[in-house]
TrEMBL record:
GO terms for cellular component: plasma membrane. It holds the Pfam family ABC2_membrane_2. Keywords: Membrane, Transmembrane, Transmembrane helix. This is ABC transporter permease subunit. It comes from the Bacteria. GO terms for molecular function: ABC-type transporter activity. The keyword Transmembrane applies. The keyword Zinc does not apply. It comes from Anaerocolumna sedimenticola. The chain crosses the membrane at residues 21-45, 65-87, 123-145, 151-172, 184-204, 224-243, 270-294.
């Protein structure tokens, strides 16, 4: 007997609707067409133009092409996923179809997972479809299959992480606009807010150290301790740590950490994987909270408590 895989009905319905549309094919063609043109142009500049007029070929430029393409795809996830997921539940509520969805045999958690999967599936599809274009760096080596695997792991985990934030606000708030603004706001806090907090703590520590060591010849650099670990929740730092390890861009991330003090060598070495695991754990917690908020029984209990 064959094993029949059960696909989430919500995801299956959304997937059929999106895949059958001409818009999906057009997006795939346009996105990969632009990346392919960029890659071909970069190859021409690197091997044809530089060798003809400069006399040398800068092979490191190919690695920069890889970094730029992956950064573009990562940026696509950061700016697109919030808009897609923030409307997943709130739009059903606005169309007054959420009650019908809740009357099905699906549990609230299954509905949440289906909405998340359908929202981020296009982004992940775009990332996987661009792998042949990224593979142009195989012609000169340096970037391996392991690096590609890490990049796809980053794209999928970041999409789930940001998507879970969007799903949470989409469930918590009634309006799509409010959910979208809140999701982008949290993303700004994770990206820029964590850096601002670290710099503020560093300035405070530096002021206190200057007061304590007033008149001393040697003044030690400020160390904010484990506060730097909040950057594990910053997707941009996760991406930069991956790129630095893959293409050897020097020690820019390491030098950046040095401005705030010292951290464990093992944490710094495995920063990429620790960050992904932590973000996935937070994602699971947010999805669980979203399922509870979506549960009709839970919602009724909350309303009764408010009346009391």
């Amino acid at each position: 007997m064959g094993i029949k895989m059960r696909i989430n009905p919500v995801y299956q319905k959304e997937l059929k609707t999106s895949v059958r549309s001409f818009r999906t094919a057009l997006i795939l063609f346009g996105y990969n067409g632009i990346l392919a043109l960029f890659g071909l142009f970069a190859f021409y500049v690197t091997f044809e133009y530089d060798s003809r007029y400069g006399g040398t070929v800068d092979y490191a430029a190919i690695l920069r092409i890889y970094a730029i393409i992956t950064a573009a795809e990562f940026g696509l996830v950061l700016f697109t996923v919030p808009a897609l997921t923030a409307a997943s539940i709130s739009s059903e509520r606005e169309k007054q179809t959420l009650e019908i969805l809740l009357t099905t045999k699906l549990t609230p958690f299954q509905i949440i997972l289906g909405k998340l999967a359908s929202s981020i599936s296009m982004i992940i599809l775009l990332a996987f479809s661009s792998l042949p274009i990224l593979a142009i760096v195989f012609t000169i080596g340096s970037v391996t299959l392991k690096d590609f695997t890490e990049f796809m792991l980053l794209i999928v985990s970041t999409a789930i992480f940001i998507g879970s934030i969007g799903i949470f606000f989409s469930t918590l708030l009634k309006k799509t606009t409010s959910a979208t603004v809140s999701t982008y706001g949290v993303l700004m806090v994770l990206g820029l807010g964590t850096l601002a907090v670290l710099w503020a703590i560093r300035i405070i520590v530096e002021i206190k150290m200057n007061q304590l060591s007033a008149g001393a010849i040697y003044k030690p650099d400020p160390d904010i301790g484990n506060w730097i670990l909040i950057l594990l929740m910053n997707p941009a730092v996760t991406f930069l740590s991956m790129i630095e390890a893959q293409i050897g861009t020097g020690s820019r991330v390491t030098d950046f950490f040095g401005h705030f003090g010292t951290i464990s060598v093992n944490i710094q070495r495995y920063w990429f994987f620790i960050s992904i695991i932590l973000q996935l754990v937070v994602s699971f917690i947010l999805l669980g909270c979203s399922a509870k908020l979506l549960d009709p029984l839970q919602e009724r209990c909350c309303k009764k408590k408010r009346r009391r």
